[in-house]
Amino acid sequence: MSSTPYDDVFRTLLTDCTELMIPVVNEIFHTDYTGNEKIRLLQNEHFIQMPDGSKQERITDSSFESISLRHTSHTPDEMNINILTPGGNVSYNVPVLKVRQYSADELFEKHLFFLIPFHIFVYEKDFNEIEQNDEKLKKLEAEYTYITKHLNEASHAGILSEYTKAAILEMSRKVVKHLAAKYKKIKKEVNLNMGGKVLNYRAKDILNRGRAEGFIEGEASGHAEGFIEGEEQTKIQIATKLLTCGNDIKSVADITELPEETVSKLAENLLET
């Protein structure tokens, strides 16, 4: 089964902002996890032993197939899951979370930040009308101004990290880009209101590459210090770039995992030069 942009967004958030899944689990299964629990992601590539002795690879989506981006009056409230095991079939029911049933207010009240990138699906059926009606377009604009405002407030309150907020914003733009590909006004207004000064979310990739390079150097020399030195140097380089682009000290410290004191000194050095 081919991957869609929405699958990619889902997996990106699941991998990079795993903690956002805890409120989703609470909502689906009526549990009361506090958010302090540690989530361990399991491998999604499996090899199944076939009766003829051969092996077939299976790549599964996450365990949250019960999140429905689109639904109709015929969409069930529960899905029956069947798993084929060597000992026979296992069948059980899983509740279905229907994204379009949630207002922006509910997403923030219940801390369902994971669903924010998919909130645009609420308006999908009305895209044609919104694109041609300035009043409805302004209402959509106001909705995303509200979302961005409350994401910023959640970040300032320490409910979300700057990094997680940046991930939600970027993934929201990615969903809108594909879902509203034919609607220029909708894309423009939503992107403008989900914009602002976004942290360099791609810095994560640079940081990971730096970590890998540091590890390789350390392993080659036989010293763990090589890994630590390479990682710290990469963090400092990224922090310097982010400061140069105008990001504040707290945000840079959050994304690079450097102490604020270190980032503050880097900022002072930049001012002196």
Note the topology.
Elements: H1 5-16, H2 21-29, E1 45-49, E2 55-59, E3 67-68, E4 78-85, E5 88-95, E6 97-98, H3 104-109, H4 127-132, H5 134-156, H6 162-179, H7 184-193, H8 203-221, H9 225-244, H10 249-256, H11 260-272
Parallel strand pairs: 3-6
Antiparallel strand pairs: 1-2, 4-5
Index terms:
single chain; two-stranded antiparallel ribbon; two-stranded parallel sheet; 6 strands; mainly alpha; 3 domains; 273 residues; globular
Report what the structure shows:
By secondary structure, this protein is mainly α. It has three domains: 5-99, no CATH class; 103-193, no CATH class; 203-272, no CATH class. Helix content is 53%, strand content 11%. The chain is built from eleven helices and six strands. It has helices spanning 5-16, 21-29, 104-109, 127-132, 134-156, 162-179, 184-193, 203-221, 225-244, 249-256, 260-272; strands at 45-49, 55-59, 67-68, 78-85, 88-95, 97-98. The strands form three sheets. It has a two-stranded antiparallel sheet with strand order 1-2. Strands 3-6 form a two-stranded parallel sheet. A hairpin with a 5-residue loop joins strand 1 (45-49) and strand 2. The longest helix has 23 residues, at 134-156. It starts with a helix and ends with a helix. 22% of the residues are buried.
